[in-house]
Design brief:
Structural class: mainly beta
Shape: elongated
Distance between the termini: 22 Å
Largest sheet: 10 strands, antiparallel
Number of strands: 24
Radius of gyration: 29 Å
Strand content: 35-45%
Length: 472
């Protein structure tokens, strides 16, 4: 074991080949701190992620083939709508049709699924079907990526329910090139809801938009907030990918627009928007062929695949680290993971993960279900720098693992952590960054790391710095 003397956080003394005089006086001749360094090998392997908690502001819509595995990854969206505080629904007297014939009528309704980013071919022909929900997703519900609204009875299935097929390309060929390239244009998939509508109570309306407008005047209390709106007016919609392969859109916002004519401007068309935003539940159902066994059996490296694909498991040699240092201080425990180039390079290759979470394996479910974020004690975040993801100090985690084992309060995975691609939100004030929201990464990504039991690229090293006080 290599050893060298340092003055912790006060005086820096470089290590050299002569270790005969380990230890330096910090305060006086009676007290001294001894510093020891060591390195240990770390073992890793790929593990199947299985379904993950789907709670993100970004929804997945489409179907893509993973270029490495050939797996078909399908994304479907379930969304509710938020009632804006400044909804500004006009009085009856301001409605064009009411003033002219005494009827409350709206023109039409559409739903727009907005996306800025996507994977694949923007000209791939895709088809999806919009289904009306029979009941809303619960805001406090814990819905995983394998949640199927149809199988779970959330979709309205009677003959009067809204069911609309939509064929689309992400590069919208139904509008002009000038409109697509305008600075104020936002890419979206638009689905029109037209024709007579019959609600679940058997009441028929000229169209769905009129159903919403008439209910507002009869029951304005149902529009007080998103909860009452979902429970009494519109539980939401499920957009299911039906056919086509080649694109996956990342939906960042959904708008339901009710169009009506106002008295002003000679019956000009106006709009009442209902937004699908972070304030309400949005869920992605991910169907993955999971043809990942070949990658799981590849022991020359490890993999990370999202969404709901593969994680990397790391076994920390806690016993070896603590042996002979049971009463010492763990100053620093550092480990880095090196990214390798993906083996398959094709058109529309998937990006690497940019942010990796490290958490104990036995807290995988509770971490996300409890809305936890990193504490730098048992959970850590690393971004990529060059080709490396580095966790600069996991000493607190190692110490806690060791203490649990000594107390007999541990599981079979007591010294294992899982590396998980994540997306997160943070704020910065006075040069301090605080992470306040963390979810599984739902965009498609593929990352190959140095590791595995047959790793040909050099071992993964964990470096440790210990310290202890002693008297001469």
């Amino acid at each position: 074991m290599a050893a060298c003397a340092l003055l912790l956080s006060m005086v820096a003394v470089s290590c050299n080949d002569n270790t005969d005089t380990i230890g330096q006086t910090l305060t006086d001749n009676m007290d001294q701190v001894r510093i020891y360094t060591d390195t240990f090998n770390v073992s890793t392997r790929s593990i199947k992620a299985g379904p993950v908690l789907s709670r993100t502001a970004t929804g997945n819509l489409g179907r893509m083939k993973d270029p490495e595995t050939g797996s078909l990854i399908t994304g479907d969206i379930t969304t509710k709508f938020h009632v804006l505080s400044n909804l500004n629904i006009p009085s009856k007297e301001d409605l064009y049709y009411f003033k002219n014939n005494g009827e409350i009528l709206a023109d039409s309704c559409d739903i727009r699924f907005y996306f800025a980013d996507f994977e694949g071919d923007s000209l791939a022909t895709m088809k999806a079907t919009l289904y009306e929900l029979a009941k809303p997703l619960q805001e406090d519900g814990k819905y995983y990526t394998d949640f199927d609204p149809m199988k779970e009875g959330y979709v309205r299935t009677d003959e009067n329910a809204i069911k609309i097929g939509k064929t689309y390309t992400l590069w919208d060929l139904t509008i002009s090139k000038a409109e697509r390239e305008a600075t104020n244009h936002a890419n979206n998939i638009r689905i029109k809801i037209t024709g007579p509508y019959t609600d679940k109570n058997g009441n028929t309306y000229p169209n769905f938009a009129t159903f919403i407008l008439r209910n507002y005047y009869e029951h304005p209390e149902y529009f007080a907030n998103s909860l009452t709106f979902a429970n009494h007016i519109c539980p939401g919609f499920y957009l299911k990918s039906e056919s086509g392969t080649g694109s996956m859109a990342y939906i960042y916002a959904t708008n339901m627009n009710v169009y009506y004519r106002g008295v002003a401007n000679d019956g000009a068309t106006l709009v009442i928007p209902f937004a699908g935003t972070e304030e309400v539940m949005q869920h992605s159902t991910i169907t993955n062929d999971n043809k990942v066994d070949e990658l799981l059996e590849d022991n020359t490296c490890t993999y990370l695949k999202t969404p709901a694909g593969i994680f990397t498991e790391m076994t920390i040699p806690v016993d070896d680290i603590m042996k002979g240092h049971e009463n010492d201080t763990l100053n620093t425990v550092k480990v880095s993971l090196t990214k390798l180039n993906n083996k398959v390079q094709k058109d529309y290759s998937l990006d690497n993960a940019t942010s990796l979470l490290m958490i104990p394996k036995d807290s995988l479910a509770t971490f996300f279900e409890s809305n936890k974020t990193i504490d730098n004690k048992t959970s850590f975040l690393s971004g990529i720098s060059g080709n490396t993801y580095t966790y600069s100090n996991i000493s607190e985690l190692v110490r806690r693992m060791y203490d649990k084992k000594m107390k007999g309060n541990y599981s079979e995975d007591w010294n294992k952590v899982v590396i998980i691609p994540v997306e997160y939100s943070s704020t910065s004030t006075n040069s301090t960054t605080s992470t306040y929201k963390m979810n599984h990464q739902m965009t498609l990504s593929s990352t190959r790391l140095v590791g595995g039991s047959e790793n040909p690229n050099g071992g993964i090293k964990l470096s440790v710095i210990y310290s202890k006080f002693s008297s001469k």
